[in-house]
Structures are given as structure tokens and as C-alpha cells.
Amino acid sequence: MKTVFSGIQPTGEIHIGNYLGAIRNWVRIGDQIGQNAIFCIVDYHAITIPHAREDLARLTFDAALANMAAGLDPNKITLFAQSHVPEHMELSWIFTTQTPLGNLEGMTQFKDKSEQHSVLAGLLMYPVLQAADILLYKADTVPVGEDQVQHIELTREVARRFNARFAPIFPEPKASIDQSAARVPGLDGAGKMSKSKNNTIGVLEDQKTIWENLRVAPTDPARVRRSDPGNPDICTIFTYHKLFSDLETLQMVNTECRVAGIGCVDCKKKLMEGLMGTLEPIQERAAHLRSHPSEVTDALVSGAERCSKIAKETMLEVREAIGLLPRNSLRPA
Ligand code: TYM
After folding, report:
1. I want to staple 7 with a disulfide (CB 3.0 to 4.6 A). Which of 21, 34, 40, 164 is the partner?
2. HSE-CB for 135 with a 13 A CA cutoff
């Protein structure tokens, strides 16, 4: 692991799927490799589905704030906003010209999103921009949740194709996945937790709202009455217990659910303890950052400065490799 890159979209509140599937690993990696761990708020990705112009800047700031609250320390790692380093777009265009349409039309996320939204060309190009994000910094490792694996595979293909056709500039990065939380399920129990599905537990959501949503979340459908025994193995709430509760609670729930010794509401109350135990320190740091916003903006400023340097160097190599006329050759000193 020499250079690590990952990103998150500023499309709404950051949820426990983002936290457990990705950000928690980013924090760990940052502890190991410092500023070569680069994390990006991908605002140009966020506009591939219709967005509200009055919200975008705030959501970008909020995403940075939430990531810092979740433990990313900008004095250690690099945190920045994608649109502050325009080279992402330049490299993305170059990769677009090298990528067969067929590779993009088959992407699962494209197919999902194009069912929900009108299909803008940018939505199809989304994974090419993601490849540019990663390769601009020549990252070798990309810590993500399972839903991003296909995009990282495409990134490897983009790198391979470019290297073979022009010059061996790029590494072929690998996805790094925390198997314990590769795909955190949504509160509705119907699939992965996802901002677009409205089935999230927000990392910065207040306890009352979390409880209101958790209280009505489906459990094992066999437990119609309090006295019906249940099967934790098929219950979303038990999956959450595995992610948030201590071993003792986990064992108690695992045993007592099967014999109807504990009801679903009590089981959920127990979960709340572990959940808030994780979220409270994050929410406290978030409150601090809200009242000290310059800590967030300073982080974004220095992150963009550092990334710009790397990005400019890579683009000099890339432009030369594909044979563009270098601007600085036109009027020799
Ligand atoms: P995004 O914003 O959807 O999600 C950010 C990260 O959270 C992970 N994640 C999950 N992990 C486990 N369970 C879940 N339910 C869950 N939901 C989300 C995602 O896998 C992701 O790691 N395309 C990316 C953003 C991106 C990017 C990049 C990532 C743009 N450029 C370059 C890596 C490298 C996305 O939409 O993430």
C-alpha cells in the first residue's frame, strides 16, 4: 500500500453503511500511511443525477465535516473536494476517448440508476471519472464497499489499456474491502443501505430519529407475536448487532431470540446502546466542527493544494504519452 485513494458522493447524509463499509477503513489506513491516503468528496460525480444547485456546496462541506467527525484527521491524511482539482475532468475525458461504450453500458450501478433517473451522458461516464480519480494519483489500493468492485475492475482495465497503448504510467489498483461490513443492509431489510433507497441510519442523525426508524424496521417475519421464536440469522437487526454490539450482548440476543426470551423491541433497544456508543463520539466531534467550520475549510484548502501538485505532474506525463502539443514548447525560454 503506497498510495490509497477513495471517494464519497456529497448526495446526502453519510450513513452507517458508508462508515462501516468505507470510512472506518480509511481512518485505519490513514494511521498507517499518512498523507498518501487521499480521500475525496466527489462533487462532480454527485451531479450525474439531477441536483439542487442551492444544496451542492453545503452538501460537499457537510460530507467533509462528517468524514472528519468519523475520524479522518486532515493533519494526517489528505482530504479534498474533487472539483477543486480540475485535472480529474481532463484525465476523465482522455479515458473517455479510450473506453468502449459496451464496458460502460454493462455496469450494474449504471443500470440501477438509469431505472430511477433520466439517463444523462454523465451517468454513463461515471465510472470513467472514477478511474480518473484513482489513477490521477497512481493509487494502488482503493478501500470501498462491495458495490464499488465493478468500478475498480473497470479502472484496472482503463489503466491496462492506456499503459499498453501509450506508456506504462499507471498501476492497476486493487479494491480493499472490509469483509465484516462489505454490504451493510438497509433498515427496510430489502437490500443494501443506500441514500437513494431511504433506508439509512445517518451517522449524524439524532438518537430520537434513529430510534423512530429502527423501532418500525422489519425483523424475522416469523415473529408475529412476542412469544414466537425467531431466527437471528435472517434478521437485519442481528446483522447490526454484529456490527455494533459487544460479544456478551451478541450472544444473549443470538440465544434469546431463538427461544422468544427477548422481544424485537427489547432487542432493538439493546442495539441502540451499541449503536449510540459508536455514533455519540462522532456526533460530538461533528458538533465541535460545526462551531469551528474553518477546521473543515482549512483541511479542504490544503488537501486541494497537495492534490493539485500530484495531479499536474501526472497530467504532464499523460499529455506527453498521448502526443498532445505541449503548450510550454511553443515559446521556448
Ligand atoms: P458512495 O458515495 O455511494 O459511497 C461511499 C463509500 O461507502 C460504501 N458504501 C457501503 N459499504 C457497505 N455497505 C453499504 N450499504 C454501503 N453503501 C455505501 C461505498 O462502497 C463507498 O466505498 N462511486 C463511489 C464514489 C467514488 C469513488 C471514486 C470511490 C468516486 N470516485 C474513486 C473510490 C474511488 C460512490 O458512489 O460511493
Report:
1. 40
2. 33
> Each residue of 235-272: pLDDT tens digit?
999 999 999 999 999 999 999 999 999 999 999 999 99
Nearest Cα neighbor of 42 from 96, 4, 79, 95 is 79
DSSP, residue by residue, 134-154: HHHTT-SEEE--GGGHHHHHH
Q: Which atom in ligand 1 lies closest to the alpha carbon of residue 8?
A: 2
pLDDT tens-digit map of 137-147: 999 999 999 99
Q: Would you name the residues annotated as active-site residues?
A: 113, 192, 195
Residue 66 Cβ < 6 Å to ligand 1: no
Please, what are the domains in the chain? 4-183+293-330 (3.40.50.620), 205-288 (1.10.240.10)
Q: Which set of grid coordinates corresponds to residue 129?
A: 471519472
Residue indicated by cell numbers 458508508? 18
- Note the pLDDT tens digit of each residue in 176-211: 999 999 999 999 999 999 988 999 999 999 999 999
C-beta of 23 in contact with ligand 1 (< 6 A): no
Task: Compute φ and ψ for 57, nearest 5 degrees.
Answer: -65, -45
Which residue shows C-alpha cell 498523507? Answer: 35
Which pLDDT tens digit goes with each residue over 132-176?
999 999 999 999 999 999 999 999 999 999 999 999 999 999 999
pTM tops 0.85, yes or no: yes
What residue owns the CA closest to ligand 1's atom 37? Answer: 8
- Closest ligand 1 atom to the C-alpha of 127? 23
CB half-sphere exposure, 102, CA atoms < 13 A:
0
Q: If you measure from the C-alpha of residue 22 to the centroid of ligand 1, how many angstroms do you get, rounded to a whole number?
A: 7
Look over the chain and give the mean of its residue pLDDT values, rounded to a whole number. Answer: 96
- Ligand 1 lined by 7 (C-beta under 6 Å): yes
Q: Which atom of ligand 1 is nearest to the CA of 126?
A: 23
- Rounded to the nearest angstrom, the gap between the alpha carbon of residue 47 and the centroid of all alpha carbons in its chain is 16
By the 10 Å C-beta count (0-12 exposed, 13-18 middle, 19+ buried), 118 is classed as exposed
**Region at 191 (left for phi over 0; alpha for psi -120 to 50; beta for the rest):** left
Segment (H or E) for 3? none
